[in-house]
């Protein structure tokens, strides 16, 4: 039984992002990559403080992006940038150089950052219907 008005927010078709939102998401992607590179350098420097600082920076970028854009995409964009940067830093080069050592801190940084990305994308600001904040059904 439809009254002819617009349906629920989640039932509406997806539209391409506006140019401003696309630029914000690209900027968040670059920010996530920079946080990943900085975290890779810091996490091994002052164990365990550097690891906690690197993970806090990653969580701040993920959750801050979510709140800045008021969408889950704002958390996903820096998370993807972080993941791309960290994965590229873990690959060995032809010269045999690599940035990550095979230590506990490196694995905690990799796995902890991925867990934080999922948590921030889940908990972050998602689509909420408009209206008051009153509880319904009381």
Automatic annotation (TrEMBL):
Annotated protein name in UniProt: Integral membrane protein
Transmembrane domains' residue ranges: 22-41, 47-68, 75-92, 98-125
The keyword Transmembrane is assigned to this record: yes
Taxonomic source organism: Streptomyces rubradiris (Streptomyces achromogenes subsp. rubradiris)
UniProt keyword terms in alphabetical order: Membrane, Transmembrane, Transmembrane helix
């Amino acid at each position: 039984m439809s009254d002819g008005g617009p349906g629920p927010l989640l039932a509406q078709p997806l539209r391409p992002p506006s140019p401003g939102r696309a630029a914000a998401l690209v900027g968040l992607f670059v920010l996530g990559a920079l946080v990943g590179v900085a975290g890779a350098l810091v996490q091994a420097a002052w164990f365990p403080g550097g690891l906690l600082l690197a993970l806090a920076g990653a969580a701040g970028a993920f959750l801050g992006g979510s709140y800045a854009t008021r969408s889950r995409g704002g958390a996903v964009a820096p998370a993807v940038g972080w993941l791309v940067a960290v994965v590229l830093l873990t690959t060995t080069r032809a010269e045999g150089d690599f940035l990550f050592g095979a230590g506990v801190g490196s694995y905690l940084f990799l796995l902890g950052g991925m867990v934080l990305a999922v948590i921030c994308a889940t908990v972050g600001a998602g689509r909420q219907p408009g209206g008051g904040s009153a509880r319904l059904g009381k």
